[in-house]
């Protein structure tokens, strides 16, 4: 699940932190921000940064220049852990996030059994109640054209 609009916001924030004189506090804020987000989101931050601000230097070069090679390497190494399949999806021009509702069945035994390690206790019939419940699941849709 990748929130692409959040990735774009973070790319803008990082650009503003890197732009002009970068104080130690701004460097630390940029570093913390980039280290706290999950690797797929970091990949999209890099994508948006390069697509909007590459004329000022690409993401890798600017990160090394502003944060130093050690911190930049720690950030960028996290992106390398993403699988090829996931990278291909994250390379999509547009990513749309949505929440789907899915049904599942929840079952439980209605009998209270004493807590013992006697195996034959499981041979007795038990009354089980099942009910259908709903769960919300966040998903991403990937494509090369803007989705409706």
UniProtKB/TrEMBL annotation:
Superkingdom, taxonomy of origin: Eukaryota
Secretion signal, residue range per the UniProt entry: none
Stretches assigned to the Astrotactin-2 C-terminal beta-hairpin domain: 95-141
GO terms for biological process, alphabetical: neuron cell-cell adhesion; neuron migration
Pfam family, one: ASTN_2_hairpin
Protein name: Astrotactin-2
Cellular component GO terms, alphabetical: endosome; membrane
Boundaries of every Annexin-like domain copy: 1-90
InterPro entries in the cross-refs: Annexin-like (IPR040685), ASTN_2_hairpin (IPR040510), Astrotactin (IPR026995)
């Amino acid at each position: 699940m990748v929130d692409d609009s959040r990735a774009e916001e973070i790319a803008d924030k990082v650009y503003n932190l890197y732009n002009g004189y970068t104080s130690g506090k701004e460097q630390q804020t940029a570093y913390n921000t980039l280290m706290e987000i999950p690797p797929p989101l970091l990949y999209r931050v890099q994508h948006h940064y390069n697509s909007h601000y590459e004329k000022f230097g690409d993401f890798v070069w600017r990160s090394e220049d502003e944060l130093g090679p050690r911190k930049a390497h720690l950030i960028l190494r996290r992106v390398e852990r993403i699988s090829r399949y996931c990278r291909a999806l994250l390379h999509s021009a547009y990513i749309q996030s949505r929440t789907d509702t899915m049904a599942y069945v929840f079952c439980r035994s209605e009998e209270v059994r004493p807590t013992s390690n006697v195996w034959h206790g499981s041979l007795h019939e038990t009354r089980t109640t099942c009910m259908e419940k709903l769960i919300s699941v966040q998903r991403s849709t990937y494509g090369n054209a803007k989705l409706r």
